[in-house]
Specification:
This protein has one domain. The chain has four helices and two strands; from the N terminus they run βααααβ. With 142 residues, the chain is mainly alpha-helical. Helix 1 runs antiparallel to helix 2. It holds the Pfam family DUF2231. This is DUF2231 domain-containing protein. Keywords: Membrane, Transmembrane, Transmembrane helix. It comes from Pseudomonas helleri.
Length: 142
């Protein structure tokens, strides 16, 4: 009679992947704070800051998305946590792109939708980073 130990697999990203993923949070959060500052002051430079921060967040999120796709293809179980992480990151990137298109308009035309999208993308980036950087998961051997 043999007893199987539970399988444990690592679903945390590599250091470069983690750096790219974690870098999305301050960039998207900075864009959100810039949008809040623009909403309160109507100084156009805040809108420009937000647009550049969103572009940086998209770059980091896009590269992290490539890493997540490779990790998803290499993952043992093709469902569960790796899929949820990939889909969250994809949603973050797509909504970030929509936010970038919104910020490409005239500065006055970006409000209030640009601010709303920045808040949504920031929350999504935080949730995605939380899911992506959490530790080990275990499943039963069959």
């Amino acid at each position: 009679m043999t007893v199987s130990a539970p399988l444990t697999f690592r679903c945390t990203p590599s250091p470069l992947h983690a750096t790219l993923l974690a870098g999305t949070v301050p960039l998207f959060m900075g864009a959100m704070f810039s949008d809040i500052a623009y909403f309160n002051s109507f100084q156009i430079q805040w809108s420009n800051f937000a647009a550049w921060l969103i572009a940086g967040g998209l770059l980091f999120a896009g590269l992290a998305l490539l890493f997540a796709l490779v990790n998803l293809l290499r993952a043992q179980p093709k469902s569960g946590r790796p899929v949820i992480y990939f889909l969250l990151l994809l949603c973050t990137w797509v909504l970030g792109l929509v936010n970038a298109f919104e910020h490409a308009k005239d500065a006055m035309a970006t409000m209030p939708y640009g601010l709303l999208l920045s808040v949504i993308v920031t929350v999504l980036a935080c949730v995605t980073t939380w899911v992506g950087l959490t530790g080990l998961r275990s499943g039963e051997a069959k």
